[in-house]
Amino acid sequence: MSEMLSVELAYGRTGLTVELPSARTTVVAPTHPPAASDAEATLREALAKPVAGPPLRERVRPGQRIAVSICDATRPQPREAMVRALLAELEGIAARDDFTLLVATGTHRGNTDEELRAMLGDELVDTMRIINHDGRDPGSLREMGTFGDGVPVWLNRHWVDADVRITTGFVEPHFFAGFSGGPKLVAPGLAGLDTVLTLHDAARIASPQATWAVCEGNPVHDDVRAIAEGTGVDFAFDVVLNREQRIVEAFGGDLLAMHAAAREIVRELSMRPVPQHYDVVVTTNSGFPLDQNVYQAVKGMTAAATVVKPGGLIICAAECSDGFPDHGSFRQVLASEPTPEALLRTISGRTETVPDQWQVQILARVLATARVGVHTTNLTDEQLRTAHLYRVDDIATAVAEELEARGPDARVCVLPEGPQTIPYVS
User: Fold this and answer.
1) What are the coiled-coil residue ranges (predicted)?
2) Going by fewer Cβ within 10 Å, which terminus of the chain is more open, N or C?
């Protein structure tokens, strides 16, 4: 019997261990740097000694209204620590009543009170003004004009009307916008629906440059940057996290310079060369909170698609406690055509962008290349079939069967942290 390798997959809150044949398995994981020894001091230093531009305290005057953009519940941003760092750094200049925290939902649903308390802690929720952005509510938006490559821009009125605008987020590779964080906390995070639909139209998503770790020349990120720069960000504040979702480094300052510096660190930590394409790729969506639904799990599948052989098999372990989800248009659009190829034809032929079609477009592109099975405890076989996916109850057994069918030279690649590591064939 061949020697087996135990691999711990990021899955939900608990993780999942699989046993795979050691001699035929390549594990691709990000570098796991230790957390900062003093997270609070690391955050405060980023505010006081920014990458570019003056310190935060020099950018704010007493009495000014301050809007702070934060990630929604599908992201592992350390929001409470970052907001408390802002409050401490601006002590004596700004009071809590001067702040509005805007949850940058984009087109996602608003976060519940329970979620907000998990994100920010009871004390901040009970003492600060917090607003879920709603890009579908025209009354909550301000028209800003046209930016980038013809993008009509509407932004949250509380953001636009503030005297000081601060983005906060975390930086990781993004499957079509290059990297998260930075300017994405303005658009799509705080943008109106029409703005988001334009940024995610079929032509932009279809660009080969709209992919992992590419920003300049990426039509999505080019326009995201143009919107943030053109409408104004007074200070940007991002962190880099490790596998325990603890702060490794923090960056502050002028938006584009700050984000570029953070991206370079993330690129070193998370891009990994591999020697070949693989018959089977096992991936995750980095566990909770990122693997709450199929919509988000597309990122893990896309990371796997970078190194799977044409006609190969991708297995994605994603808990999907929030289902597809049922809100939004993702599930409906995904089930609207009988095959992935038909989905791609329909989407590319549309003159108007349908909400969530970009996620369907990306998943359909993966499915046109490889079969995708999902290990989840929250979706039925029939639900997965409507999404052109299928259930994998036992990952190790499914891998063994695929390797046997493909012969002794078949190999498997594992991305235990999913899109936290982006492999590429060197």
Assistant:
1) none
2) N
Please tell me the pTM assigned to this model. 0.87
Q: What CA–CA distance (Å, rounded) separates 175 from 164? A: 30
State the CB neighbour count (10 A cutoff) for residue 338: 9
Tell me, what's the pLDDT at 2? Answer: 74
In SS3 terms, the chain reads as: CCCEEEEEECCCCCCEEEEEEHHHEEECCCCCCCCCCCHHHHHHHHHHCCCECCCHHHHCCCCCCEEEEEECCCCCCCHHHHHHHHHHHCCCCCCHHHEEEEEECCCCCCCCHHHHHHHHCHHHHHHCEEEECCCCCHHHEEEEEEECCCEEEEEEHHHHHCCEEEEEEECCEECCCEECCHHHHCCCCCECHHHHHHHCCHHHHHCCCCCCCCCCCCHHHHHHHHHHHHHCCCEEEEEEECCCCCEEEEEEECHHHHHHHHHHHHHHHHEEEECCCEEEEEEECCCCCCCCCHHHHHHHHHHHHCCEEEEEEEEEECCCCCCCCCCCCHHHHHCCCCCHHHHHHHHHHCCCCCCCHHHHHHHHHHHCCCEEEEECCCCCHHHHHHCCCEECCCHHHHHHHHHHHHCCCCCEEEECCHHHCEEEEC
Number of residues that make up the chain: 426
